[in-house]
Structure formats: C-alpha cells, structure tokens
C-alpha cells in the first residue's frame, strides 16, 4: 500500500468509527468512503496494468481492492439505505484475506509491523461481520472505537512515519505493535460497553 494511500485509509477509518459511534451521520460519511474507495480501486488497477505481470507488484496492489470495495460498499449502503448483511458477509471474506496478507508480511516481506497491522485489520473486519451479518448490535460501539483507533494507529501514524522516512520494522517493533493492537482492542471494548441506565428517582 502506498504511503499516501495508507494515510487516507486512516482518514476514512477515523470517519467510519465516528459514524458507528453516532457522531457523524451515515450520509455525511459516504463522501469520504466514495473518494477513498474510488482511489483504492482505480490506482491498483493502473498499477497492475503497468506491472508487466510482476508477481510481487500484483500482490502488493491486490490488497488495496479489499479496502476500496469495502469503502464503496459502505457508501452504497449509507446512500441507498440498503441492509448491512451483504457488507457483513463480505467483511468475513476480507478478514480471512487479511490474515493471509499478514502472514505474507512476516514470510515474504520480513515486515512484522505490517504483519500485525494486517491482523489488526482482520479483527476489525471480523467485528464488522459480527455486527452487520450476525446482528451483534451490542458490539457496535466497540467496533466504532476500534475503527477510530486503528485509523490513527494503523493508518495515519505509520503513513506519516513512512512519508518522513522514519519507519522501522523488525522483531522488537513487531512485538510493540502487537501489544499496542491488544491494548487498543481492550480499550475499545471498555469504551464500547453499554452505559448503565440511571436509577429511577426515589419516591418522595
């Protein structure tokens, strides 16, 4: 994924997290999903067409479609009012693909940090599956917080490090990334727990 593309993945995840938390209306979030989703479909297509069949280039570009079609699907649902089950089952498919991309980051590209990032995205897409396809509405706020936090810590932050030439990866960095991912998931669960209803006022 390109550095600039990753930055805007972070932006759209941040917006979608706010949407799931009820802060940004769905139709207001649709524009960003359309913009970034379109870019994440057009650019990998151009990259593949110009790759000359190079397997590594095609592999690197292929993952972008997972994001592109997810964001376009989100925009479609928000603009048309379509039910979310289709997007939910698509998210399960994407979660499985993200696990494989994470393994490839460890084995083919020697990049443990992005291996962890891909696995974090796999967890996120699985949460989308649970909420949209399986009706686990109680997980909506947890998913919203996790989406928002991953937008910052798996999108914006690594993109800025890459753009500044300060990105580092290795075993130690991979462990730090894994610990951070677990902390973010736990924090999202805590923030997303249903708020207890206030007790009724005592009778006079």
From TrEMBL:
<dbReference type="InterPro" id="IPR003211">
    <property type="entry name" value="AmiSUreI_transpt"/>
</dbReference>
<feature type="transmembrane region" description="Helical">
    <location>
        <begin position="86"/>
        <end position="104"/>
    </location>
</feature>
<dbReference type="InterPro" id="IPR038523">
    <property type="entry name" value="AmiSUreI_transpt_sf"/>
</dbReference>
<feature type="transmembrane region" description="Helical">
    <location>
        <begin position="171"/>
        <end position="191"/>
    </location>
</feature>
<feature type="transmembrane region" description="Helical">
    <location>
        <begin position="116"/>
        <end position="133"/>
    </location>
</feature>
<protein>
    <submittedName>
        <fullName>AmiS/UreI family transporter</fullName>
    </submittedName>
</protein>
<feature type="transmembrane region" description="Helical">
    <location>
        <begin position="55"/>
        <end position="74"/>
    </location>
</feature>
<keyword id="KW-0813">Transport</keyword>
<feature type="transmembrane region" description="Helical">
    <location>
        <begin position="6"/>
        <end position="24"/>
    </location>
</feature>
<feature type="transmembrane region" description="Helical">
    <location>
        <begin position="31"/>
        <end position="49"/>
    </location>
</feature>
<keyword id="KW-0472">Membrane</keyword>
<keyword id="KW-0812">Transmembrane</keyword>
<feature type="transmembrane region" description="Helical">
    <location>
        <begin position="145"/>
        <end position="165"/>
    </location>
</feature>
<comment type="similarity">
    <text>Belongs to the AmiS/UreI family.</text>
</comment>
<dbReference type="Pfam" id="PF02293">
    <property type="entry name" value="AmiS_UreI"/>
</dbReference>
<keyword id="KW-1003">Cell membrane</keyword>
<keyword id="KW-1133">Transmembrane helix</keyword>
């Amino acid at each position: 994924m390109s550095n600039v593309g990753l930055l805007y993945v972070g932006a759209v995840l941040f917006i979608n997290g706010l949407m799931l938390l009820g802060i940004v209306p769905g139709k207001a979030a649709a524009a960003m999903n359309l913009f970034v989703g379109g870019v994440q479909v057009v650019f990998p297509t151009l990259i593949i067409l110009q790759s000359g069949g190079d397997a590594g280039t095609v592999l690197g570009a292929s993952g972008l479609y997972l994001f592109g079609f997810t964001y376009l699907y989100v925009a479609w649902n928000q603009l048309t009012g379509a039910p979310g089950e289709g997007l939910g089952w698509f998210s399960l498919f994407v979660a499985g693909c993200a696990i494989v991309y994470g393994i490839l980051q460890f084995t083919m590209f020697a990049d443990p940090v992005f291996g962890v990032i891909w696995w974090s995205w796999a967890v996120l897409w699985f949460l989308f599956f649970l909420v949209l396809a399986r009706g686990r509405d109680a997980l909506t706020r947890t998913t919203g917080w996790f989406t928002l936090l991953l937008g910052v810590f798996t999108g914006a932050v690594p993109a800025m490090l890459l753009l500044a030439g300060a990105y580092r990866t290795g075993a130690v960095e991979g462990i730090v990334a894994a610990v951070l991912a677990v902390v973010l998931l736990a924090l999202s669960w805590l923030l997303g727990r249903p708020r207890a209803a206030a007790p009724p006022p005592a009778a006079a």
